[in-house]
Task: inverse folding
């Protein structure tokens, strides 16, 4: 009996040591076992690049033009972004200057991205997807930029409602770009 | 007289294979401990970053340039002032131009090391096209500023600066999207 006790004890000790390690692996956010296509530095650079892309596009007016690039009669009268395929959502950068900048910055470097426009609707917000390349990975980064639209800018049949019909302000929408390595 | 039974616990047929079992037990235990000791340090590899402080220096230098030194306004990071860009890239930095025409209040652009706090490291700053080029080292933009609203009568300048001619090894790269006069470009800082 005492002989086998040595072996059983060793197994118990080994299980204890290994379970300590397993516990430590599980509580840590990033370990060699985490599925990842990225590292922190690359994520930071992507984030900064996308933020800069939104900031510079907002400054030269490309972002505003892309948000209101709306064709009310497309998609069987439901409306869709101009030139979008039947689904109403682009699968790559839109065919305008903002889309060209997205393609040059992200697509040409094998980075996938989604773009959504968030607008006020009633008491809450609703979203209008602009570009959808798929489901973001766990290592995706995102950046947002708000754009104020005025009454004379919103096209007919626009997706976002006029938040204040009495004022010249039409709506304040938020553009979010989510990017991740393919 | 109460006689004790001979102590047979130390030896004899009841002890079975104690020595052998003990050896197996210690083998299992030591193997586990050695495995854990060897494996645990690798858990911290993702945090280590590998190349030391260069990644941080490159990232901070890119932020300094795009959001402060060259920016038209610190409220709009990434939107660069043409005057600052000319002053920074013109023949190793022209402090006079930066002082008179550029909104950023900086003490020194002639010394790249000091401007970007490189602390003796080598760096290369390049502004190039947004899309990926065919080579790993992208060609810097060449701008002719004569037709702009800045009084600039010199030759066209190349938007690239570096503080060392040494060969790049183990480079840390940081990039930003910037715009000059409404056109979007990519600013790349390489530190080695």
Result:
């Amino acid at each position: 009996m005492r002989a086998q006790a040595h072996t059983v004890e060793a197994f118990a000790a080994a299980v204890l040591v290994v379970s300590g390690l397993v516990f430590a692996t599980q509580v840590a956010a990033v370990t060699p076992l985490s599925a990842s296509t990225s590292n922190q530095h690359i994520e930071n650079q992507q984030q900064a690049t996308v933020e800069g892309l939104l900031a510079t596009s907002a400054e030269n007016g490309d972002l505003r033009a892309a948000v209101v690039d709306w064709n009310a009669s497309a998609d069987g009268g439901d409306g869709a972004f101009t030139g979008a395929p039947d689904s109403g959502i682009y699968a790559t950068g839109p065919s305008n200057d903002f889309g060209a900048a997205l393609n040059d910055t992200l697509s040409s470097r094998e980075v996938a991205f989604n773009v959504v426009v968030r607008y006020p609707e009633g008491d809450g917000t609703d979203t209008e997807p602009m570009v959808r390349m798929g489901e973001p990975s766990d290592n995706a980064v995102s950046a947002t930029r708000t754009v104020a639209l005025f009454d004379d800018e919103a096209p007919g049949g626009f997706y976002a409602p006029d938040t204040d019909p009495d004022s010249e302000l039409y709506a304040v929408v938020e553009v979010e770009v989510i990017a991740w390595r393919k | 007289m109460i006689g004790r039974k001979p102590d047979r616990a130390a030896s004899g047929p009841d002890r079975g294979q104690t020595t052998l079992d003990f050896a197996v037990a210690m083998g299992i235990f030591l193997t586990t401990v050695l495995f854990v000791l060897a494996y645990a340090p690798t858990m911290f590899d993702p945090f280590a970053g590998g190349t030391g402080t260069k990644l941080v220096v490159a990232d901070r230098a890119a932020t300094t340039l795009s959001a402060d030194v060259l920016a038209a306004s610190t409220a709009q990071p990434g939107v660069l002032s043409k005057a600052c860009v000319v002053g920074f890239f013109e023949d190793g930095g022209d402090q006079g131009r930066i002082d008179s025409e550029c909104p950023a209040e900086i003490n020194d652009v002639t010394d790249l090391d000091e401007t970007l706090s490189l602390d003796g490291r080598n760096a290369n700053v390049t502004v190039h096209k947004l899309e990926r080029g065919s080579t790993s080292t992208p060609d810097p933009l060449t701008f002719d500023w004569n037709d702009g609203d800045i009084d600039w009568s010199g030759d066209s300048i190349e938007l690239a600066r570096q503080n060392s001619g040494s060969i790049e090894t183990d480079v840390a790269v940081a990039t930003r999207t910037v715009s000059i006069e409404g056109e979007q470009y990519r600013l790349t800082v390489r530190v080695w």
In short: Chain B touches chain A through 50 residues (CB under 8 Å).
